[in-house]
Amino acid sequence: MTLRPPFGLALTVAVWLVCAASLVLLVATRSVSEDVAYAPWLLLAGYAMWMVFWAPAVVIEDRDVRLRNVARTRVVAWSAIHEVETRYNLTLVTESGSFGAWAAPAPGALSAIRGRQQPAEHLPGSTYGPGRTIGIGDLPHSESGVAAYHVRRGLELRDDGRLPADDGRVVTTWHRAELGVLLAGLCLSMLLTAFAR
């Protein structure tokens, strides 16, 4: 199962359309030197929006949970997870530290008020606090709540021995290629803007 940021695809496509329209207008109405100066910034903006709003994800698999954030991915084995928190976003607590998911933020105040009116039954037992209350980030229709629900269900399967054995590790992988493209695009944009003037 793959969970992505809320409205991530819509925001990314909207920004790409604005960048494409701006690029067409730029080429049609400006000089070549202005095209060279400003076009890379539009392309860079579209790429940055993809990195921030569509590339991040929470991927829940039989062997692990992958938290793909903007700059790096954490692969957390099921046996490494001690606790699931949702105060600011989905956060997996392990012996190696706590790892948050950009793609599963907790709801804002207005969403929380609306969400309190929704039923919160049939959730994994570890979701509930004293008096069978749940935190705002665990609301079943919020991004953090949906992700936490699936992770907690996976933890129940793990505790029942219904998931394959794993190595219990947390592996961090930096997104070198994506960050390199972003840095190169930024440098190229600055250079072209400086030379076009």
Largest sheet, strands/sense/barrel: 5 strands, antiparallel
Mean pLDDT: 86
Nearest-angstrom radius of gyration? 21 Å
How large is the share of residues in beta strands?
15-25%
Low-pLDDT windows of residues: none
Overall SS class? alpha+beta
Give the CA-based shape.
elongated
Write the layout of secondary structure elements.
Elements: E1 2-3, H1 8-29, H2 32-53, E2 57-60, E3 64-68, E4 72-77, E5 83-85, E6 89-94, E7 97-105, H3 109-115, H4 143-159, E8 170-174, H5 176-196
Antiparallel strand pairs: 1-2, 2-3, 3-4, 4-8, 5-6, 6-7
Helix pairs in contact: 1-2, 2-5
How does this structure look, described?
- This protein is α+β, with helices and mostly antiparallel strands and 197 residues long.
- It contains 5 helices and 8 strands, in the order βααββββββααβα.
- The strands form 2 sheets. Strands 1-2-3-4-8 form a 5-stranded antiparallel beta sheet, with helices on one face.
- β5 and β6 form a beta hairpin.
- The radius of gyration is 21 Å and the shape is elongated.
- The termini are far apart.
